[in-house]
Records
---
Amino acid sequence: MTADLRTILYNEIHPCWDVGALAGAPNPEQLVVYIDLVLNPDGTVAGTPQLTAQSQAAAARNPFVQATASAALRAIHRCQPFKLPVDRYGEWRTVTMRFSPQDFDQ
């Protein structure tokens, strides 16, 4: 996925990203999860987004990482369908998204 498409997708997810429960969490720089998703041509999520293996392991060890993952998954589902250029579907059909409260703290 190109940087411009990633920016479009992040901008669409941002309004649905609620990280209020993570306020004051220790080591906020460690609250990072990666989620693999497959999107349909209409911008809806195909199947179930999955945490990468590394993120699954981190979430199993740290409840704040688990909360980050849950917030990210909720945001993905709430904000779909995403408005991405259909003519570039091949570029955004599958994507691994990085989520961290620090990224969305704007």
---
Amino acid sequence: MELAALDRLGVILGCAVPTEWPPEDMRDVLAMFEATLRNRPAEVGWWAWYWIAGSPSGPVLVGSGGFKGPPDATGMVEVGYGILTRFRRQGFATEAVDMLAAHALAQPGVRRVEAECRPDNLGSLGVLPGRGSGR
């Protein structure tokens, strides 16, 4: 629905979906997420999660994140995320990444959660402990 019908996405999620959805850095991966989940439905929960925040006008979709698939043979999962520009620097990404990491580490077979970001991505450097070296 993110690719075809944002109005329906909002109804299903129970929130407003901003017209600039999805975040620019997430647009290229949506088709890959859809294809992967159609082919491997057992991996639901290892890909994308939506981040919805309260606002004076009601719930609004602010970002999304998840993992780049289920844990690998060593028990590692990599987290990724994107947030709409107008919702950055408000703590949403930090809270969501912390929750994603806690959720992953509570799953069987997960031993480590990692993330990477470019050294010039100051926003993500602030979100990720250890300057993006992993969790």
---
Amino acid sequence: MSKIVHTDNFGGDYPDEKFVTGLPILPESTLKAICQIINDSAGPHAPRYYKVVPDDYELQPGFEP
């Protein structure tokens, strides 16, 4: 199983990642296609980037003062 996560598009140290919720269980190929569509329509300079990750992926936190 896989999930979609959105993360910092610029490789920052504190990407504040979050899982995309509300999606039905879909094949990985479909999830990758969804990410590709979102990323292509947002453009290369969008602040967030969407990617497919394994079900046991651990989110990277955001900056906490």
